[in-house]
Amino acid sequence: MATYLFYLGVGPFERLNAPTGKVSMSILAPAGRSGEGQRALEVARAGLEELERYYRIPYPLPKLDLIAVPEFPFGAMENWGAITFRDMQLLIAPSTPAGEMRYTVATIVHEIAHQWFGNLVTPSWWTDIWLNESFATFVEHKVVERRYPELKSVEDFLSIWTRWGFMLDSLPTTHPIVVEVGDTREVNQAIDRLSYGKGASVLRMIEGYLGSERFEAG
Ligand SMILES: [Zn+2]
C-alpha cells in the first residue's frame, strides 16, 4: 500500500452502517448528522457492485468507510478503505437538486473507482499519476451511465471533461498529459484538469477504437 493512501481520522464521528453485503460499508459523519448519509450509502453500495463487475476483480478489502469531513479542502480523497469527502458532498438532503445529485453520485463512484486504479495498482512514481485520475474519471462515467442512465453521465463527460481538455489544450500554458516529476514537491504541478479531462478523453478514444468489450478485457 502506498503511504499517501493511509488515513487516520480522530473526532466525534457517528457511524451509519449498510445493512448487508460482503464488504462492511459505513458512512461516518459529524455527531448528529449520520442520517443524512443514507442516500450516499445506497449510491456507494450500488457503485461498488457495478465497479466489481466492470473491473472483474472483487473489492480487495473487508471494509469501506466513507467519511464526511467538515471544511475538507478538496472534494474528496481516495484513501484506501477510508475515503474522505467534504461533508456537503456526502451528506445529501432528500431535497437536493438533480444537478447537485449528479455531481455527488459521480464523486462517490470516482473515489471508489480509485480503490482499484490508484490503490490496488499504484504508479511506481508520480510522473504516472495521470493514470490514476484519467482512469478513475473514465471508469466513473462508464459505471454511472450503466447504473444511473437517467443521470446522463456520458453527456456530462463530454460537456465537462472533454471540453476542459480542449479548452486547456488551447492555452499557451498547455502541457503533455504525462508530466515529468523530479521531486515530490512538484506533484501538485503535474496534476490538473488536463490530466483528468484530456487523459480520460484519450482513454475514451482508445475504447472507441478497440470497442468496449476488448478494452474492458484488457
Ligand atoms: Zn480522482
From TrEMBL:
It is an enzyme of class 3 (hydrolase). Keywords: Aminopeptidase, Hydrolase, Metal-binding, Metalloprotease, Protease, Zinc. Residues 40-218 form the Peptidase M1 membrane alanine aminopeptidase domain. InterPro entries: M1_APN-typ (IPR034016), Peptidase_M1 (IPR001930), Peptidase_M1_aminopeptidases (IPR050344), Peptidase_M1_dom (IPR014782), Peptidase_M4/M1_CTD_sf (IPR027268). Its EC number is 3.-.-.-. The keyword Zinc applies. One of its GO terms (molecular function) is metalloaminopeptidase activity. Gene3D superfamilies: Neutral Protease Domain 2. One of its GO terms (biological process) is peptide catabolic process. CDD domains: M1_APN-Q_like. GO terms for cellular component: cytoplasm; extracellular space; membrane. Its cofactor is Zn(2+). Belongs to the peptidase M1 family. This is Peptidase M1, membrane alanine aminopeptidase. It comes from mine drainage metagenome.
